[in-house]
Amino acid sequence: MPPASKINMADVARRAGVSMATASRALANHPHVATATRARVLAAAEELAYVVSPEASRLAGGATDRVGVVVPHISRWFFAAMLDGLEAVLRDADLDVLLYHVGDAADRHDFFRRLPARRKVDALVVIGLPVDEPERERLALMGVHIVAAGGQIENYPYVCIDDAAAGRQAVDHLVFLGHRRIGMIATLDPEQPDWPVAPGRTRAYAEALTEAGIPADPALTVTVPWGGVSGADAMSRLLSLRTPPTAVYAHSDEVAFGAVRTLRRAGLRIPEDISVVGIDDHPHAELADLTTVAQPVRRQGELAGRMVLRLLGGEADGDGITVPTRLVVRGSTAPPARRSTWPPARRRPAAR
Length: 352
Description:
InterPro entries: HTH_LacI, LacI/GalR-like_sensor, Lambda_DNA-bd_dom_sf, Peripla_BP_I
Largest sheet: 7 strands, mixed
Helix content: 40-55%
Organism: Paractinoplanes durhamensis
CATH superfamily of the domain at 163-295: Response regulator
Shape: elongated
Region (Disordered): 331-352
Number of strands: 13
CATH topology of the domain at 163-295: Rossmann fold
Keywords: DNA-binding, Transcription, Transcription regulation
Protein name: LacI family transcriptional regulator
Strand content: 15-25%
Order of helices and strands: HHHHEHEHEHEEHEEHEHEHEEHEE
Number of helices: 12
Radius of gyration: 25 Å
């Protein structure tokens, strides 16, 4: 087989047993190519790791005027808000968005396997999805600009927040209020369990306690799949401790919402009996009166879109943009209650 850099359309056509014209039409997704023939050509291109050169594509018919966007979730508000900001900027520049939803591990493997042979875009934006070395190699075969949004990926321009700094804002707030027994609800992505969600938020917890001279207690850390129900279950586990925490730091607001539900069902008052803080400033956080660390999600999407436009315009871009976060203090946090016993007596829910 010729070296990857020497593979051309003739090699793909030969492998698929078709003419070069047919191979070209199949790779361009021409409507007058039989489904079976197109599948054979695509399979041959994938086997050879053949990628249509961007220069040849432009000479043949110009740029695609499309930007690919890869997301692990499409129903969560974070990804929807990020995509909203990104799409608005690209739409104003007359660029279309081609959305790739990479769900579980099987979807992810299939996506990266097929990606190089299907160069249908001029750039690719990866939102909130860690990428390992073999996947980076597949991305490189596309020969297009790659931008990471909602997280950092090695060697690519990025737009994100500093998760460790956001975590410090949350935990330092609890320490400042006087809490010494602080629980943490950390999360994993249930569809990508090998990838921790925002590891900087976990690191921030340990660093904040160490700097405050607070001994670490492993029992105060609970790691669960991301989601409100999981947050509720985690809070139940923390309340079952002989000495429960006086405050809880949740990795996300959705997880914090679940923790709040458990506390209220247990008859505990927030924040008089226990404080809760989250991260993200979910659209419902204000209604829930939840103290949180806000990040401008839609704004990050807009910045990623502008970064794509600069790259497509031939401008050099820096390593990335780190967007600042801010602590938003609401009614779910307060100094710990001064009482000789803990936990406080459970209160009977008020009659409705």
